[in-house]
Amino acid sequence: MDGVSEEIDYVNLESLVVKLMEEVEMMKGSPMKNTENINLLEHQLVKSKLDMKQLRNRIDVLESGSRSVEVDSNQQQVKSHS
């Protein structure tokens, strides 16, 4: 090979190495970012479960209130028919 071709190959090789090193660095950061995303998703899951529990409790309160209104209404109907 002549000197010019070797120089071109060296420049191409050097740029390829730089590019590969950048990609390796990005990949190293990827597990950290994945861990952060997993932690965020776990936090959101816990919050969602708590929100669902609170909603279920509200539904139970509303349903028990509606049942007591039905019972009171039925009791008044029975008294009025007596």
Give a verbal description of the structure.
With 82 residues, the protein is an all-alpha fold. 96% of the residues lie in helices and 0% in strands. The protein starts with a helix and ends with a helix.
Write a concise keyword list for the protein shown above.
82 residues; mainly alpha; 96% helix; rod-shaped
Q: Outline of this structure?
A:
This protein is mostly helical.
Question: What topology does this entry show?
Answer:
Layout: H1 3-81
> On the 0-100 scale, what is the average pLDDT?
81
Task: Name the shape in a single word.
Answer: rod-shaped
Share of helix, binned: over 70%
Q: Order of SSEs, N→C?
A: H
- Based on helices, strands and strand pairing, what is the structural class? mainly alpha
Strand content: under 5%
Major sheet: none
The total strand number stands at 0
Task: Count up the helices.
Answer: 1
Low-confidence region ranges:
none
